[in-house]
Amino acid sequence: MTSTIPATARTSPARALICRGCGAEYPLIAQHACYECFGPLEVGYDAAALARVTRAEIEAGPANIWRYAPLLPTGQDPSARVTLDPGLTPLVAAPRLGAEFGIDAPLWIKDDSANPTHSFKDRVVSVALTAARGLGFTRFACASTGNLANSVAAHAARAGVPSVVFIPADLESGKVVTTAVYGGELVAVDGSYDDVNRLCGELVETDEFEDTAFVNVNVRPYYAEGSKTLGYEVAEQLGWRIPEQVVIPMASGELLTKVDKAFTELVEIGLAEAPAGGWRVFGAQSAGCNPIATALHAGTDVITPVRPTGIAKSLNIGDPAAGAYALEAVRRTGGWMDFADDDEIRDAIRRLARTTGVFAETAGGVTVAVLAKLVASGRLDPARETVVYNTGEGLKTLDAVAGVVGPTHRVRPSLRAAREAGLLG
Amino acid sequence: MTSTIPATARTSPARALICRGCGAEYPLIAQHACYECFGPLEVGYDAAALARVTRAEIEAGPANIWRYAPLLPTGQDPSARVTLDPGLTPLVAAPRLGAEFGIDAPLWIKDDSANPTHSFKDRVVSVALTAARGLGFTRFACASTGNLANSVAAHAARAGVPSVVFIPADLESGKVVTTAVYGGELVAVDGSYDDVNRLCGELVETDEFEDTAFVNVNVRPYYAEGSKTLGYEVAEQLGWRIPEQVVIPMASGELLTKVDKAFTELVEIGLAEAPAGGWRVFGAQSAGCNPIATALHAGTDVITPVRPTGIAKSLNIGDPAAGAYALEAVRRTGGWMDFADDDEIRDAIRRLARTTGVFAETAGGVTVAVLAKLVASGRLDPARETVVYNTGEGLKTLDAVAGVVGPTHRVRPSLRAAREAGLLG
Predict the structure, then answer these.
(1) Are residues A306 and A194 in the same domain?
(2) What is the per-residue pLDDT across B145-164, written as a single tens digit (0 to 9) for each?
(3) How far apart are CA B78 and CA B66, in angstroms?
(4) Looking at the structure, do residues B238 and B206 belong to the same domain, yes or no?
(5) Are B162 and B110 in a shared domain?
(6) Distance of residue A203 Cα from the nearest chain B Cα, in angstroms
């Protein structure tokens, strides 16, 4: 699998894979780490190609992530896409949530639960698998504990391509069902998520898996670029303006860095205006898995891995691959990071639902809870426009709030009973 | 609550409420049954106003149901809407599902699980509550066992309006959570869904509930019109063509009649082309609740109420209010109805997921299973273009398939174990 992106996608603005560590360059192949320094590879673009992209070209595109194909490494040819057509999810005004937190300026929720499998993972999987098919892979795979598994299995089903998804054997039944229903191979591994990941890292090197794209391993550089669309969309939805402040959940930390990269690109090529003082990027973790925020608070570059705990399972990456880059982006833009415990997460899920009608998964609760903390600590300016990213759907983590919400009244089916229960004033 | 639609929405094409039974006309007030004959009221339009609507006007509108505001009774003023902006959900090509059933012509899934609370109810609730606010109501309510409860509670939360939702006390915990999280009043009633409905019918007549719009009771005529958007969208997504065949799930039967009404309107006002031989409307029920299909099969107009059973709970209306009108539409267009049992529903959910990447709730399983039966019995022509409506999300009815899907392999986390399990060929 060493072919480059094929001629049918020749209008891709991608130029090379570039090592984030030493700057070494590689062709656009299936590779995720540098042979020189073992640093992670990232897609680099032809600046002239990006500079030719216009707002009109994007606005004339489809109502999904592919409107940004001129800024992505792959997917320029619609017939070659492997996709559920995610994206262009709602940017929801949240004035009553803002009021509860003392935020006067406009507050927005970017609600990515509206994607086809109800998480932002559909964005990265669509880009990864489109790249993978272009590179000649004929089977799709991932290691996951939930959202990514759903998305890969659904994408493979839509495309009619075989898939093999690896999960820890003790995963909740609901998450098993939402992947197994798509009919691909589903491998339950007796071990932790780290064990599953390690096994996938070994399998990807075998001859038998030479035909298989692991979305977050051998095609990871393309996968990661999909997250840029969460930056592009917010800017376009605000009328081609970058918001002054964004609050973003962190697992590997990659999403945060890619939203920042998207903003940087848009400003560089003249598609969007930066706010007068620049934008500030804020990161959110849970108290049960806060290695990046802890490093920031300690003023160090050294991220000490943790063994994750707590209800925000979709953010539970104890050894975050892009943590150092997230730290860099937050420090460079004058942002901050914080973390929230399980009770704060549950409370934030309810506040968000009550004030906006958006029912978020635990990761969204983390982000809203951290928003409140950032205002309280003075790190986030309540007089500046802020966008908060909700990356997933409450239906997938019902257990998180099942114990704390329920009926407000219980009555027999009669007017008298309703009156006695106080329903008639 | 007898005020008519206010002046701010004067561009509404709605003219009157008209009795479906005797044709008596009423102003656009909060009323759902005829004083003369007790027949159901339906919104009637000013034909000249509808005739002025153009494709360009619709195509320039927002990417949601409100692009069709010129054809709806309310919502012309964006600032007066009570809405989560549902609609413009994907029309997914399903060639591999078609091949499994021997369908050669194009087959499409209209996937309404993509709405904000993941069912088609967001469409009807947005129209009902926008009308309700225009009519002066200050509280929103419904009786429901699931999707409608979620949608009303979420809409009220977004709008910052109090809500009170009535549910049977023995409802599944998951459905309670997905309504309670939005923070409105949630009344658990010790009784069946019919008991809950009856109680709401009594409450709506009390002075204490004079300020309260029950979406499917006192503002039902407006509520029902929201379903027309599922017809408009399919026609627009097909390039302003009416499909030759549509298969639609039936609970009250109202959705089927409104899709047919939407097609009729579009052809009458010249916005869409009808197929050469007209369109044919097919209705789907479950074997556990099939009163409309049973009447059709028996060749009678008399719909005998049933006590619903089976897993397709969102379709379990034993005494369907619009059943007679559904029969009329199916007979007039040369369609048919059929029903599927629980095993067939489960199998259809899996087939749909495996071949399209769409994970449907049980109602979607009913519709796909009935599609297969209609082809097998020769009632539906496999050589004609067909659209199948999926009205809800598989995440809400996980239990339906939890027993029949699961991991395909189980291994220890080692290459050797993977090889022994056959994963390496």
Answers:
(1) no
(2) 899 999 999 999 999 999 99
(3) 8
(4) no
(5) no
(6) 7
Reported as a single tens digit per residue, the pLDDT across A182-206 is 999 999 999 888 789 899 999 999 9
Q: State how far residue A353 is from chain B, nearest Cα, in angstroms.
A: 5
Sign of CA pseudo-dihedral B82, B88, B94, B98: positive
CATH number at residue B379: 3.40.50.1100
Q: Give pLDDT, residue A4.
A: 53
A108 and A240 in a single domain? The answer is: yes
Sort strands A245-249 and A280-286 into parallel, antiparallel or unpaired.
Answer: parallel
User: Do the domain assignments include residue A211?
Assistant: yes
DSSP tag of A101: H
Select the residue of B186, B196, B423 nearest A408 (Cβ to Cβ).
B186
DSSP B128: H
**Number of folded domains that form chain B:** 2
With a pLDDT cut of 90, the percent of chain B lying above it is 91
**Nearest in space to A367 (alpha carbons), one of A262, A205, A295, A259:** A259
Mean pLDDT calculated for residue range B287-312: 96
Residues B188 and B108 in one domain: no
Q: Any chain B CB within 8 A of the CB of A164?
A: yes
B359 touches chain A (CB under 8 A): yes
Instruction: Report the 10 Å Cβ neighbour count for A233.
Output: 24
Q: Do B142 and B251 fall within a single domain?
A: no
In 3D, which of A329, A352, A328, A334 has the Cα closest to residue A400?
Answer: A352
Does one domain contain both A325 and A244?
A: yes
Q: B373 pLDDT band (50/70/90 cuts)?
A: very high
A357-362: average pLDDT: 97
Contact B402 A196 (CB under 8 A): no
Q: Which domain holds residue A354?
A: 91-118+224-402
Residue A2: band (very low, low, confident or very high) from pLDDT cuts 50, 70, 90: very low
Q: Is residue A345 within 8 Å of residue A286, measured between CB atoms? A: yes
Task: Report which secondary-structure segment, H or E, holds B375.
Answer: helix B362-376
Q: Report CA A15 to chain centroid distance, whole Å.
A: 24
